[in-house]
Design a protein that fits this description.
Shape: globular
Strand content: under 5%
Number of domains: 1
Helix content: over 70%
Number of helices: 16
Order of helices and strands: HHHHHHHHHHHHHHHH
CATH class: Mainly Alpha
CATH superfamily: MFS general substrate transporter like domains
CATH topology: Growth Hormone, Chain: A
Largest sheet: none
Number of strands: 0
Radius of gyration: 20 Å
Amino acid sequence: MPLRHLDVAAGSGQEYCMSTYLRFSLFFAAFYSAFGVVTPFLSVWFDYRGLTPSEIGSVFAVGMAAKVLCTLMAGQVADQITRKRDLISLTLLVVIMVMILLANAYSFWMILLLSALATALQSAVVTVTDAVALAAARTEGLSYSRVRLWGSASFLVLALVMGQVLEQTGPAPIIVITAGLVSLGLIASRGLIDPPMAARNTAPSLRDMVTGFAVLLRIRSLRRLYLTAALLQNSHLFYYAFSSLHWQQMGLSKNQIGWLWAEGVVFEIILFAIVPRFGILRRPVALLVVAGLAGAFRWAVLGTTSDFTVLVIVQVLHGLTFGAAHLGAMQLLSECTPPGLSARAQGLYAALPLGIGAGLAYTIVGPLYAAFGGAGYYAMVLFSALGVVFAVGLRGRAGQAPQ
């Protein structure tokens, strides 16, 4: 199956596609701006509040566990309702309230609870939004990669700005700023367009819910894809949790740290922009293999040095280690999912590789950093290498209609 829904809009409905492109681009830009703050600097805020590396790892792990239940429920509900936009907006409103409470939390257990809840709810929004965007890609020719790149662009801008802001203010305002940016996502969500689907008059039974997930897990290519994605995406968790803290302790300024995060996202944006133009990059299995190979090299270098010049060079690979893995997984997920189950397939993707898998990985990275410091990156090399093995195993299955 060609990568048409990651391509430029084609043919029919051009006026509608332009409107859809603008609406989704604005939402992705607004929503992912908050991640430009918390992803590079949340561990710094935890350290500021007095959490140890092991406690920081525990907070991230519990967040991933909460994410499992929340994303599965969100996927199920989204497949049953026609007004998915309202679900997204309501969830973001709750995230804002949780963030306000988190900004005023000081005890470890309260920080753990509120951070986990915010993580789970934001993941639910990602699940539903990706399902809606991919539905528009299939039916209207929307280019998923080109709307998603605006999320990466806003991440880039905020990572750069926050590095400079925190040099002046310290870590204290991180959560308050994040709440404000989530508010922008809430406003932008009102412009999203719900995909066409028939209204359902009755709520599904628990048996129907379980059956829907069981149907997906019986698809062999999906099971292998979930495992591959778990290895490739979770190889980033040591980087996400401790790179800023490690670089700060190695003498890098917050401004330099912000630039390193931003640089990685620049090349992620470039990848999203050029994927539709190069045939080899439109093959999802090739994207996954390249992501794993690049990851193995990247983590080996980051485990070896904290020299700023070397870091600037190796951060180029983020476009491949994250961007290629994400686009490859989204394409295969769309190809292999039966009609009517797309949001649940996204829910399983968020719950299994990015939820349970990430939760297990986070229980490892905290003790790794506490024991070995930056050398903990070497364990991530193994994740990436295994991801390549399982990605190659997907060859021959990608694009086949589900049985």
